[in-house]
Amino acid sequence: MTTQPSDIVVFGATSFVGQILTRYLFEEFGLDGKLRWAAAGRSLPKLEEVRRSLGQGAHKLTLLQADADDEASLRRLCGNARVVVSTVGPYALYGEPLVRLCAATGTDYCDLTGEVQWMRRMIHKYEKSAQTSGARIVHNCGFDSIPSDLGVHYLQQQARERFGQPCAAVKMRVRAMRGGFSGGTVASVLNVLKEVKANPALRKELADPYSICPPGSGQRVRQKNLGFAEYDPDFGAWIAPFVMSAINTRVVHRTNALLQHAYGTDFRYDEAVLTGRGLRGRLTATATSVGLGAFMVAGSIGAMRSLLEKYVLPAPGAGPSPAAQLKGGFDLRFHGRTRQDEVLRTRVTGDRDPGYGSTAKMLGQAAACLASDISKKQVAGGFWTPAALFGDRIVERLQAHSGLTFEVLGK
């Protein structure tokens, strides 16, 4: 038990992403610097294994025992942290007690969830508590949705500098992505499909592009929802649906609402995957669309979902080797158009696989930014998005310390 609260506590340090995050914090910040951090989890022996794996000097790392099902231990955890970083998912199954306690105790919090239905419930149930206590709760601090959310933020900053106004319509296209989704992400997607099966009304909620925007935000412009292969003239290529667009687009729209419609009340945003030009691009887009649709159907059927989990999909807690993580990466392209038809193109790239290595670095810098860069006097408590809370500060951190690049492209 620490006598002085740590700046950051990693909850779920023994999970696959938690271990990558713990190593990243150790290598990036050490244990003798200004940023004090600790590791927490359910099993003390497993935490000790993680600490030993870090190597020389890691014996100084403080370990805290806490269980997602034990409120008393979570309360102690909040008392020993200024910022809690949670990698314990699926969050819809395990995440609510910690969010509730952070909101009640004024403890800042961030995670890497992409479970929009769960986020909506947490905002509805605990935002007033967080506003009262001063807790800043920031979901989506991994691949979903930092590259999209901060990518749009960056493009809009550049648009204001060049055109004196933001872009009214922005498209994000996945040009390249090496490395798979994490087992935790897959488990979260399957849990959403399971919830929809049990509660059909949830389908309508998930179809709403403004589902996590504050009530009365006034955004009701019809948004594009790509359902199948299509040709995109702005990119001169065929596109297919992107499995994470249903998460990222909601986060971007919440950012716009939290920033008092900085992108405009008529702002439009959509995401897709670039599959190439000509007949080959069309065939790839068609196959990708059919494959994604089949996965969603199979995931919503209990027996098929069990077969996918058992034989096809990565299991939670499993993932690629460090060498495979180094070979991963992503390249996202953004196309913005102003109301006067001025066009701006940007891109965001990452140097690790999106689901593990890059996500851990993004999550680590989000926690550090929350702990070190933004005081509670500067930003009040509540449920924030990465772009609305961190803005340019985290763009600088990500480029300097996380292997991400943000850049303007020529026409």
Secondary-structure class: alpha/beta
Count helical runs: 16
Give the low-confidence spans.
none
> Could you give a short account of the major beta sheet?
7 strands, parallel
Radius of gyration of CA atoms, rounded to a whole number:
21 Å
Characterise the protein shown here.
The chain is built from 16 helices and 14 strands. The chain has 411 residues and is an alpha/beta fold. Strands 3-2-1-4-5-6-13 form a seven-stranded parallel beta sheet, with helices on both faces. The protein has a seven-stranded mixed beta sheet with strand order 8-9-10-7-11-12-14.
Concise structural overview:
The protein is α/β, with parallel strands linked by helices.
List the helices and strands and how they pair.
Layout (H helix, E strand, L loop, with lengths): L5 E6 L4 H14 L7 E5 L2 H10 L8 E4 L5 H9 L1 E6 L4 H4 L1 H10 L2 E4 L4 H18 L2 E3 L7 H18 L5 E10 L4 H16 L2 H7 L22 E3 L4 E4 L4 H14 L9 E9 L1 H22 L2 H11 L9 H6 L1 E9 L5 E8 L6 H16 L9 E3 L1 H5 L1 H10 L3 E5 L2
Parallel strand pairs: 1-2, 1-4, 2-3, 4-5, 5-6, 6-13, 7-10
Antiparallel strand pairs: 7-11, 8-9, 9-10, 11-12, 12-14
Helix pairs in contact: 1-14, 3-5, 5-6, 14-16
